Q: What sequence folds into this?
């Protein structure tokens, strides 16, 4: 008898799992502290697109395998490039690999929660900031590390961070590269809640399932209103609310919510 051996497929940089209306996207390069390489960025964008298309998915969670959430760009990939005479074109790299991910996260209807299990540095911090909510482990930390290599924050850190912590604090964090531990991040409004490391995923899943049980269209319209509020005048925002409310009022979930209130029962929302 001849023994057969199954050769395992190459481990993917991104792992996904869906259940109960929640898609969990896990950064899966723990030996590299989930640093971002070409495979990572390509697979992450595709995972986001698939979750967006899947009607069974109502909420998305981003988290990291191992000790880190995401340590940013994999600088190991640059060793062969950075030699005397080399001229980097990082702007092109951002437009090609990073910006499409951030835009997809911000523009999709479905809410995204970051379950920050460890360090979120550089573009990894940007990924956490681009999520709609952040649940942090006590072991989590946030670092705008770009200045330490003579660069500027990218992947929309300069857009999200001042909106979360204010301009002055954002300037301090970006220009000093200071590490922000989880408890300080909570005080600054950088995260929504801080939990014990052992309960990070269960707490995040509880929040995600709560969101998944609510009217999907109402949540999508709310996300859009809040995202666009910083760019609107008061008059424009009032009109945007009126338009969104007109849309929400025509959904089956609105009717179900009203009828459940009248009939004194728990609503059964269907996402329509």
A:
């Amino acid at each position: 008898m001849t023994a057969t051996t199954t050769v395992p497929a190459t481990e993917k940089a991104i792992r996904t799992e869906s259940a109960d209306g929640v898609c969990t996207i896990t950064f899966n390069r723990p030996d590299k502290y989930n640093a971002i390489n070409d495979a990572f960025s390509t697979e992450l964008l595709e995972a986001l697109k698939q979750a967006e298309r899947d009607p069974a998915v109502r909420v998305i969670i981003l988290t990291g395998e191992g000790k880190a959430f995401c340590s940013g760009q994999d600088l190991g990939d640059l060793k062969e490039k950075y030699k005397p005479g080399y001229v980097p074109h990082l702007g092109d790299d951002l437009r090609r690999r990073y910006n499409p991910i951030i835009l997809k996260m911000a523009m999709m209807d479905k809410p995204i929660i970051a379950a920050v299990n460890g360090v979120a540095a550089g573009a990894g911090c940007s990924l956490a900031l681009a999520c709609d909510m952040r649940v942090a482990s006590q072991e989590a930390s946030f670092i705008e590390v770009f200045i330490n290599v003579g660069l500027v924050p990218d992947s929309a850190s300069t857009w999200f961070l001042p909106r979360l912590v204010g301009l002055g604090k954002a300037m301090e964090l970006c220009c000093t590269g200071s590490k922000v531990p989880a408890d300080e991040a909570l005080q600054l409004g950088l995260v929504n809640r801080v939990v014990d490391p052992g309960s990070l995923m269960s707490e995040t899943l509880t929040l995600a399932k709560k969101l998944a049980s609510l009217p999907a269209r109402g949540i999508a319209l709310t996300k859009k209103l809040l995202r666009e509020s910083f760019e609107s005048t008061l008059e424009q925002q009032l009109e945007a609310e009126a338009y969104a409310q007109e849309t929400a009022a025509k959904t089956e979930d609105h009717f179900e919510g009203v009828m459940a209130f009248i009939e004194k029962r728990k609503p059964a929302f269907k996402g329509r």
Notes: Residues 1-9 have pLDDT under 50 and may be disordered.
